[in-house]
């Protein structure tokens, strides 16, 4: 399992990357994709939607189960990964790359710093 | 690993879809040692089983097996079971793992007055189900009996990988295959031999998607203490020309809802989701998944009898939105 050091993490298994333009990109972690198994459908949020931290705004379906994806920070959805409509398996094959799910313009970029760093998330995930 | 009926069981070894397709296209194996086994022996074993179960046990010849059920006094089900006739006055009943204690109490309670001996042998057997169109071919390489001379629902003793076994040409996937009963001490050697013969290990996840695609109900989901088998695709099991425990109560009930198959155009139905017909709530999903074969969402659901005909348009509510689908014939896919 890989947990890149440049990302922040949530206890609901999302990863978060604060980009240079102040936008955050969100996906699910290697641990999450492995636990879900073959991802077959991703329900994306709507661009322009205002979301609150901790709110369920997207969903990932595997053969096994359905799982909600939560907004890691409050803000506005500015982009969603439409490639996932045709290739939901990108969540399994490239969880930290082509498998990103949505981008949020955070109300407060400093909120990202409150999220877990890689070693703390790894310890949390491996204790599950 | 996941807890299941008190056992630690693998959901998947590699991937549910890959394991599922291995069984549909070649051969896979499941460790189902957690299933329960009861011996029923004695001069009145047949009479007792005729009373205990709704299928016609008098039709069961030595060396043959029969799907059946344990009805309760209210016309619902204590469990669904398989009955194997292993001798003139000897039968083996295989029951669901989660129900072993409940079933054993039920069977003992009804046995009063019958000349039968009951034995709970659930700890005496390991059970490996080898399933798929190549199951017979793979198993034959390890087995001293000519499997091509056997047919569906046959049961017989043989050696598998040099170990004493009881085989039955039965399963729970909609495919051809065998269930192999062996001593727990031999289970690892037989599993390893099957692995070396090219049989794919499969977990609980694929077991569930396979049985669902085959339209086979699962106790605790489609079948419960409250549901009548007469409102499901299993009504054929209930033979009304004979008497059995709970018969009058079962026949007195009507089917306000019926168990049907549903196929969605998009989206994946899951257990507990609501079913709608033209905006009105009309039932609920008991099991659902993505069919690894058709790549569509499929479900078993109880729906109002008025909406139970094949091809009736219905909708399933998924995360607050209605997804269109229709009632499907069962099994969902043409199977081997």
UniProtKB/TrEMBL annotation, chain A:
Residues 23-105 form the Lipoyl-binding domain. InterPro entries: 2-oxoA_DH_lipoyl-BS, Biotin_lipoyl, GCV_H, GCV_H/Fam206, GCV_H_sub, Single_hybrid_motif. It comes from the Bacteria. Signal peptide: none annotated. Its cofactor is (R)-lipoate. Keywords: Lipoyl. SUPFAM superfamilies: Single hybrid motif (SSF51230). Binds 1 lipoyl cofactor covalently. One of its GO terms (cellular component) is glycine cleavage complex. It holds the Pfam family GCV_H. The modification N6-lipoyllysine is found at residue 64. One of its GO terms (biological process) is glycine decarboxylation via glycine cleavage system. The glycine cleavage system catalyzes the degradation of glycine. The H protein shuttles the methylamine group of glycine from the P protein to the T protein. PANTHER family: GLYCINE CLEAVAGE SYSTEM H PROTEIN, GLYCINE CLEAVAGE SYSTEM H PROTEIN-RELATED. The glycine cleavage system is composed of four proteins: P, T, L and H. Belongs to the GcvH family. This is Glycine cleavage system H protein. The lineage of its organism: Bacteria, Thermotogati, Deinococcota, Deinococci, Thermales. The gene is gcvH.
């Amino acid at each position: 399992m890989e947990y890149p050091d440049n990302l922040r993490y949530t206890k609901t298994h999302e990863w978060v990357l604060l980009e240079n333009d102040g936008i955050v990109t969100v996906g699910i972690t290697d641990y999450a994709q492995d636990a879900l198994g073959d991802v077959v459908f991703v329900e994306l949020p709507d661009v322009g939607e205002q979301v609150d931290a901790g709110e369920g705004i997207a969903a990932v379906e595997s053969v096994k189960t359905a799982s909600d994806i939560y907004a890691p920070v409050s803000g506005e959805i500015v982009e969603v990964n439409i490639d996932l409509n045709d290739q939901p398996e990108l969540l399994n094959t490239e969880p930290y790359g082509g498998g990103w799910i949505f981008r949020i313009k955070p109300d407060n970029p400093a909120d990202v710093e409150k999220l877990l760093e890689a070693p703390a998330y790894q310890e949390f995930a491996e204790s599950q | 690993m996941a807890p299941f009926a008190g056992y630690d069981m693998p959901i998947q070894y590699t991937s549910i879809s890959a394991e599922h397709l291995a069984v549909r296209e070649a051969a896979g194996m499941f460790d189902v040692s957690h299933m329960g086994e009861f011996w029923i022996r004695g001069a009145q074993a047949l009479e007792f089983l005729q009373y205990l179960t709704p299928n016609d046990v008098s039709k069961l010849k030595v060396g043959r097996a029969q799907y059946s059920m344990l009805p309760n006094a209210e016309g619902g089900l204590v469990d669904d079971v398989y009955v194997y006739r292993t001798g003139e006055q000897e039968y083996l009943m295989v029951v669901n793992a989660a129900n072993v204690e409940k079933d054993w109490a039920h069977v003992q309670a009804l046995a009063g007055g019958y000349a039968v001996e009951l034995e709970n042998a659930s700890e005496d057997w390991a059970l490996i189900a080898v399933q798929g169109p190549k199951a017979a071919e793979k198993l034959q390489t390890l087995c001293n009996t000519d499997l091509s001379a056997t047919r569906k629902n046959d049961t017989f003793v043989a050696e598998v990988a040099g170990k004493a076994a009881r085989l039955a040409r039965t399963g729970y996937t909609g495919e051809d295959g065998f269930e192999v009963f062996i001593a727990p001490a031999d289970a690892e050697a037989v599993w390893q031999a099957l692995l070396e013969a090219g049989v794919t290990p499969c977990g609980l996840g694929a077991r569930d998607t396979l049985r669902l695609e085959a339209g086979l109900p699962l106790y605790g989901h489609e079948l419960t203490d409250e549901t009548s088998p007469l409102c499901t695709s299993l009504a054929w099991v209930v033979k009304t020309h004979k008497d059995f425990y709970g018969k009058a109560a079962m026949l007195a009930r009507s089917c306000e809802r019926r168990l049907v198959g549903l196929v969605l155009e998009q989206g994946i139905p899951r257990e507990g989701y609501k079913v709608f017909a033209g905006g009105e709530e009309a039932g609920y999903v008991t099991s659902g998944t993505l069919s690894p074969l058709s790549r569509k969402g499929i479900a078993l659901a109880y729906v109002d009898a008025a909406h139970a005909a094949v091809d009736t348009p219905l909708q399933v509510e998924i995360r607050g939105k209605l997804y269109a689908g229709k009632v499907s014939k069962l099994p969902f896919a043409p199977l081997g």
